Request: fold
Amino acid sequence: MFKKLRNIAGTKFAGAVLYRILRMYCGLVRLKIENENEWSQYLKQGGRVLICLWHQQLLLSIIFFPKYKEYRPSVMTSKSRDGDVSTRIVEAGGVTAVRGSSSRGGIAALREMIQRIKQYRLGAHTLDGPQGPIGIVKLGAIAIANDAGAVMVPAVITADRAWYLHSWDRFMIPKPFSKATIKFLPKIELPPVMNKEEYEKQRKNLEDIMKPYLH
Reply:
């Protein structure tokens, strides 16, 4: 029965319904957005942008990304059954899902993300997804930004009242009528020459910037 429900949830119709339900739920949260202008102006002037966030804080992003539909933003989702569901949800919001993870189809997905950002100039990436461990930045975001010629923009989402699931990422669900903030931190430009040591340095720097915002 559970397997059948998951299969249904992975259909295009169910994804559209779930997206609308989640939009309505997120609409109950009093949301504030900070520091959007710096990177949005950079994007409008022809720059390429990769939004970077923790897997834990994904939920409220479904409110935000549809306003940038003209740039056909893309995000990686896993090739698992859970990935089928999340794919349908993000696609209902006008975001292109690029299927792949570190365990299945990761290299091909990274290449597709790079090509899409080169062409459409906007993408998003969960730094520790899809399976964690929580708070550990993987090299995917650095590779995408470097090869696509994009700046990385760390995004953190906080709420004054929220539930945290017993999942690997302690997934955050802001409570109804809570106050939440999507805060964009200063954009990060990678150096023109990237070797193995520089990749690790940039990965650690991004991790140090983002980790204080994990719950």
User: Anything to note?
Assistant: The first strand starts at residue 30 and ends at 34. The chain is about 40% helix and 20% strand.
